[in-house]
């Protein structure tokens, strides 16, 4: 039995898991990462602290196991900009994908056609927290920082560099914003369109899928593992979760109800509508000729956390509130765009903001919470309509721990949802990719067999068809107001 530690480096939590041959977790550990919310919409993380979380969870897992492990498989958050020098030291705090400092710049790019040009060349839409606008902002405001950097990468490859000394990037991370997903090479005209041709040398060349690296002396000391132990890095958490959940056939999709609402659909067709709305991502997967059309909306459990803080309730009570207010939330409607950086899928608008309507003195917290949860489910339907969902739908993330919210998703989407038994699907996906890279693949079907299915209720689905039409009309009106 090959034993691989899967490490998922999330935005707020790092988790390590070791699985048995059936895909069940036999040892796991997690620890929090620090997210720094700063004025001006800035959101940053400290690379050293993030690396320390990786060391912490790996050492905890090893303490719970008997005997050695065969490899470490990394996955984690994508986007943002993690600037490092040749030794892997951060030259400034990492800029998170949640960051909004480039909001105004992105609005200028949208008006001037830059976003459309990049989308036509790479099939990925730009948003404030992706590398292109962040790098351009830093180039204008902190050029000396970029001068000191050897690489402008992402979370997973930043950790990989600290563990192995290698400067590289997985094709999934590189997919946004400059990679041609078909050739798996950077499109230099897309780089130039963003005014970054003079910073082209900061982009690490993508590694071939399933490349195996090795712990160097520094990484081995950090993790308490042998020098030379195999390490894999990628895909990042969105495609890793799709792989770990069981998405394998074109048309299958996965809903990740986490900090963001990530909606992905597997496709073997590289075609996209170049005249469509420049939003979402076209992610390269470990299999050439397969892609994930990803619509990672900025709405998600962070919105629920906000509502819980507003009402002074615990997250565990959300399910109870959903049962206290039925479908339609007694006439309360919502648009869920609470992120300071607006929305990035299935449309991009840094000015997108939330709204509630239909409120009166007769309404209470249950109605507002129900309306918010329904609006997030409508946003998921909007994303899946854009991504082309036609097959089996899987789901993961903290949001699906709530039976009531999961049922709401199924009813709004009008389709059954398959929930893997183990919530750590990102780490599962990273381990499955690593095992194949090592030449000892696990039985993916066997791993996906342990799951449950949430059926939709036909009468509720019919009700929500009309609700979705109302949501679309409200969104169209709001988008006109955001432009004023």
Task: Provide an overview of this structure.
Keywords: Carbohydrate metabolism, Kinase, Transferase, Xylose metabolism. This is Erythritol kinase. Residues 4-244 form the Carbohydrate kinase FGGY N-terminal domain. Its EC number is 2.7.1.27. One of its GO terms (molecular function) is erythritol kinase activity. The chain is 38% helix and 19% strand. With 484 residues, it is an alpha+beta fold. It has a domain at 4-239: Nucleotidyltransferase, domain 5 (2-Layer Sandwich), CATH 3.30.420. The strands form 7 sheets. It has a 6-stranded mixed beta sheet, with helices on both faces. Strands 16-17-15-14-20 form a 5-stranded mixed beta sheet, sandwiched between helices. Strand 4 and strand 5 (42-45) form a beta hairpin. The longest helix has 25 residues, at 458-482. The chain is globular, with a radius of gyration of 21 Å. The chain starts with a strand and ends with a helix.
